[in-house]
Automatic annotation (TrEMBL):
Annotated source species: Amphiprion ocellaris
PROSITE patterns according to UniProt: IQ (PS50096), MYOSIN_MOTOR (PS51456), TH1 (PS51757)
Protein known as: Myosin motor domain-containing protein
Alphabetical keyword list: Actin-binding, ATP-binding, Membrane, Motor protein, Myosin, Nucleotide-binding, Repeat, Transmembrane, Transmembrane helix
Domain Myosin motor: 29-708
GO molecular function term, any single one: microfilament motor activity
Major location category of this protein: cytoplasm
Pfam families per the UniProt record, alphabetical: Myosin_head, Myosin_TH1
């Protein structure tokens, strides 16, 4: 249920500007499309848009939906004064505006304590990104804030130019088109202050990195770097300013755009990056665009030759081995029956591999950038983001609208599928909202007839039968597959579907407009032809395995984060691109369904981006694709107009003698009396519990026209009332002679006298209150030691209030602070309760702030204390040293060992010295711990496996040495005996091993010697003594002698 506040101004009078504007409807149209008389007429809908656009009124409502038309010029309607004008004002109180919707959503979140979302959709160039900027700016300016929140607001706003640089591009329809979908959560605390944010990105158009249509550009960041980067930077990177030298940047033959200043935009991006996160720019933030430009630079306009110098620069940026990259780009690794084979690639395959690498690097780098932005927007006081008991969320969905191009491919298929899902959600939530309001007001719900596009969504997404499932099957099918075979499979599987057509299945007339390589879907918004060429390649969107292996070895910090080694190890095939998009879309639908939605529908008035020009054909096309007529029909299926009783009665009461000038009974009776006097018929209206519902706009227009005609009579009546000292004849003569002067003079006198009287009464009232207050305070002080009674209640309440106020300002700030203000005698017990509650609250907050990594660290330290405290000499030195997640870098663990381990991932690794059971010869080894077993590794070979379940115990000496023994069962023939190991991090290793094996009680601290089992049941002994320096050697009687250094 949307928030509907009392529509009153600061003096308590109801103001309804929307109704006031109805008198000018012939010139400026109606502010709400539900008031259109002919609501089924598309022509009437568009004409209303045209009238308002001509008057620079770019916003119009369809109920609670805001329709926005891009003016392509600056309008003076976004100032801070305008923000204050809409702040705290009810939705329909003043003219439609993006600020009205923003404020209504914010107040609904605060009042109902329920998460909200604003869905912004429209064609490229319709103003979606600008609308989201205006919403964020409104919250940044009008919401409560402090210094920390001001920084967060800056980060929220500065994230826009960064994401635009990396995710937007010039297209045929828009010079700054978003080529990805964005969902942003803005998190607010219980005071309504923005405290955090989170961004989800969808379906970045990675194919633009390597190909652009004629008249389009690559992503903005490339051109910004070349045009705005410092000379020193470009020299360092061996780049030239002319984009014509780079093939990836001129595929569309449009490197320069008159409306875009790449140089200035580069400065904006460089200024925004340190605001979001100082580490982005200071460390390797500039490598984001540079790495990709390096990839695109590899194929320059010189007959595809690569100079050695340029190749070196590219390899430095990517941080990979040159020979390995060349091998991966020109050869393919195949695995058959457990054997690996290397197959050379032909020219087309090598170009495809190069393009796939460029797309993968850019796409993953973009995801990394979004992650960095999310880290900077993360609410540091919340352990779980974005949901918290004390916080609420407003989501902003800025996503591509329905796209119909001359050539529609895989990207348009995904985009239009997304819009089908959003339309399904839109109609469902609109109907649910309408039904809830009707039920709340006690009015019978009438069934609404509308087109349910679930049949189209099922055609696309149904398991095993939908287009996406068929596309995945064709990509995975062994043998020769191609886009045409995919089309044939579609014809066989879904050919009978009423919303699916191909050239083969179409009739003679349709075949002329559907080629043999296309299929047509009948979407809710119209028919779209999709060319299947490239569908399989774009859906695969996978790198060759050997290319992944090369990139996983990258020294570049960003790319090493983007390409994880787990991808190479994991044998499971990644999901296809369409399935990934479908799954992310399902999650988005779940997010949106859990929130109360608001909608902004953006429309572009012309393709030339000219102010004042209204292209009716283009606008009709968008009205259809946005489903606006369908939404209007749903909204108008019941009652066109609804308003609270007090608002309706306050505006129209002059039209009925019984309600004018004031109605003193129940509001519902007053409204009933008014509509009966106006002659409303029973089928024209219904009275709910708190609102009146009017079915036809004509009824409202007639009422508004009657009020307009009544206003002169009301003015005359008011004037005559104020001239009560004249007779009626004298008044009429006076009125005819000098009506204006006398009326104004009369009004001024009445206002002056009323204002003086009010000030005097207020002053007298304040004096009486002050005298009474002093009297009660003195009497209370006299009786302060008595029991609580009328004589001292005010004084004691004041003392208590003063203590609590002082306590609030002097509360302890940490759990270590034991100070507490001294309470008055009457509050000793309460003060103690408050002190305990506050201490408990501080402890809870402290625990919540503990990050998972630090919590894990403390748990390990607690276990180490239980095992080693007062037992081992070296333990005190280890207390202040953090336990690491691993003592081995992932590059130090051989790839073959990781592949041998398979799905068992290495949780901890450390270098150790293993001593042979005979002769105690030291041998360097790696000890790797997994979740179920440990292994001792010698370079590329696993020498010994130790299952945790079979581990009999762990023995450690009590001195400062690093020796420990892992005891294995003697009856296990696979084991050669106990493992005798030495490690300089023995406290850490034994603690982690004991915790993973769940055998902390199996750790034994031996003060003098340790006995261990050698093969065939024989025993060995380790003797420990103190000495001047650490020494491990074979001692007398065949024992291993360990000399430990004295620490104290």
């Amino acid at each position: 249920m949307r928030y509907q506040g009392r529509e009153v101004d600061i003096e308590g009078r109801v103001r309804l500007v929307m109704e006031s504007a109805l008198t000018a409807r012939d010139r400026v149209g109606v502010q709400d499309f539900v008031l259109l008389e002919n609501y089924n007429s598309e022509a009437a809908f568009i004409e209303n848009l045209r009238r308002r656009f001509r008057e620079n009124l770019i916003y119009t409502y369809i109920g609670s939906v805001l329709v926005s038309v891009n003016p392509y010029k600056e309008l003076e309607i976004y100032s801070k004064q305008q923000m204050e004008r809409y702040r705290g004002v009810s939705f329909y109180e003043i003219s439609p505006h993006i600020y009205a919707l923003s404020d209504n959503t914010y107040r609904a979140m605060r009042t109902e304590r329920k998460d909200q979302c604003i869905l912004i959709s429209g064609e490229s160039g319709a103003g979606k990104t600008e609308a989201s900027k205006k919403i964020l700016l409104y919250y940044a300016v009008t919401c409560p804030t402090n210094d920390h929140m001001a920084i967060l607001g800056d980060r929220l706003l500065q994230s826009n130019p960064v994401l635009e640089a990396f995710g937007n591009a010039k297209t045929l329809r828009n010079d700054n088109s978003s080529r990805f979908g964005k969902y942003m959560d803005v998190q607010f605390d219980f005071r309504g202050t923005p405290v955090g944010g989170h961004i989800l990105n969808y379906l970045l158009e990675k194919s633009r990195v390597v190909h652009q249509n004629h008249g389009e550009r690559n992503f903005h960041i490339f051109y910004q770097l070349l045009d705005g980067g410092d000379d020193d930077l470009l020299i360092t990177l061996d780049l030239e300013r002319n984009p014509q030298n780079y093939r990836y940047l001129v595929k569309g033959n449009c490197p320069r755009v008159s409306s875009i200043s790449d140089k200035n935009n580069w400065k904006v991006v460089m200024k925004a990056l340190p605001v979001i996160d100082p580490d982005i720019k200071s460390c390797e933030g500039q490598n984001c665009p540079i790495s990709i430009t390096g990839c695109s630079d590899m194929h320059k306009h010189s007959q595809n030759s690569i100079t050695e110098n340029r190749c070196v620069v590219v390899l430095q940026l990517l941080g990979v081995d040159g020979s390995a990259l060349r091998e991966a780009l020109t050869h393919k690794k195949l695995t058959a029956k457990g054997e690996e084979m290397i197959s050379p690639l032909n020219y087309e395959q090598a170009v495809s591999a190069r393009d796939a690498l460029a797309k993968a690097v850019y796409g993953r780098t973009f995801t990394w950038l979004v992650e960095k932005i999310n880290q900077s927007l993360h609410w540091k006081d919340s352990t779980k983001f974005p949901f918290s008991k004390d916080s609420s969320v407003i989501g902003l969905l800025d996503i591509y609208g329905f796209e119909v191009l001359q050539q529609n491919s895989f990207e348009q298929f995904c985009i239009n599928y997304c819009n089908e899902k959003l339309q399904q959600l839109f109609i469902e939530l609109t109907l649910r909202s309408e039904q809830e309001e009707y039920e709340t007001e006690g009015i019978a719900w009438e069934t609404v007839q509308y087109f349910d596009n679930k049949i189209i969504c099922d055609l696309i997404e149904e398991k095993h039968k939908g287009i996406i499932s068929i596309l995945d099957e064709e990509c995975l099918r062994p043998g020769e597959t191609c886009d045409v075979s995919f089309l044939e499979k579609l014809e066989d599987t879904v050919g009978s579907h009423p919303h699916f057509i191909t050239h083969k299945l179409a009739n003679g007339k349709t075949r002329r407009v559907v080629s043999r390589e296309e299929f047509r879907l009948l979407h809710y918004a119209g028919e779209v032809n999709y060319n299947v060429n490239g569908f399989l390649d774009k859906n695969n969107d996978l790198l060759n395995r050997n290319l992944k292996e090369v990139m996983c070895q990258s020294d570049n910090q960003i790319l090493s984060h983007c390409f994880r080694r787990e991808e190479v190890i994991d044998q499971k095939r990644p999901e296809m691109a369409a399935t990934q998009f479908k799954n992310s879309l399902m999650k988005l639908m779940e997010i949106l369904m859990s929130k109360e939605p608001s909608y902004v529908r953006c429309i572009k008035p012309n393709d030339a981006k000219q102010p004042g020009r209204f292209d009716e054909v283009l606008v009709r096309h968008q009205v259809k694709y946005l489903g606006l007529m369908e939404n209007l029909r749903v909204r108008r299926a019941g009652f066109a107009y609804r308003r609270r009783f007090e608002a309706f009665l306050q505006r129209y009461k002059p039209l009925c003698p019984e309600t004018w000038p004031n109605w003193h009974g129940r509001l519902v009776d007053g409204v009933s009396t008014l509509v009966n006097h106006l002659g409303y018929k029973a089928e024209e209206y219904k009275l709910g519990r708190s609102k009146i519902f009017i079915r036809f706009p004509k009824t409202l227009f007639t009422t508004e026209d009657a009020l307009e005609a009544k206003k002169p009579e009301i003015g005359n009546e008011l004037c005559y009332t104020n001239f009560g000292m004249f007779s009626l004849a004298e008044y009429k003569i006076f009125l005819g002679v000098n009506v204006c002067t006398c009326v104004f003079r009369c009004v001024v006198i009445v206002i002056q006298s009323g204002w003086r009287g009010m000030k005097a009464r207020r002053r007298a009232k304040r004096r009486r209150q002050a005298a009474e207050l002093i009297r009660r305070f003195i009497k209370g002080f006299i009786y302060r030691h008595e029991e609580y009674c009328p004589e001292n209640e005010y004084f004691l309440d004041h003392v208590r209030y003063s203590f609590l106020k002082n306590l609030r300002q002097n509360l302890p700030k940490s759990v270590l602070d034991k100070s507490w203000p001294t309470p008055p005698p009457s509050l000793v017990e309460a003060s103690e309760h408050l002190r305990r509650l506050h201490m408990r609250n501080m402890v809870i907050k402290y625990c919540r702030r503990v990050q998972p990594e630090w919590k894990k660290q403390m748990m390990q330290k607690v276990v180490a204390s239980e095992i080693f405290k007062d037992q081992k000499d070296s333990y005190p030195l280890s207390v202040g040293r953090l336990f690491l997640d691993s003592r081995l870098e992932r590059e130090q663990i051989n790839l073959k060992v990781i592949q041998t381990l398979g799905s068992d991932k290495v949780q901890y690794g450390v270098s150790v010295i293993k001593y042979d059971r005979r002769g105690f010869k030291p041998r360097p080894r790696q000890l790797l711990l997994t979740n179920t077993f440990a292994v001792l590794v010698d370079r590329t070979k696993i020498k010994q496996r130790i299952d945790y379940a079979a581990l009999r115990g762990i023995s450690v000496g009590s001195l400062s040495d690093g020796m420990f023994v892992l005891h294995m069962p003697t009856e296990d023939n696979k084991q050669k005996g106990d493992a005798v190991l030495h490690c300089s991090h023995v406290i850490e290793v034994v603690t982690k091993l004991a915790m993973m094996a769940n055998k902390t009680s199996y750790v034994n601290i031996n003060p003098g010697s340790i006995r261990f089992t050698v093969a065939r049941g024989k025993e060995g002994i380790i003797d420990f003594i103190r000495g001047s320096e650490l020494k491990v050697a074979k001692g007398k009687r065949g024992h291993l002698l360990v000399v430990s250094q004295r620490l104290f």
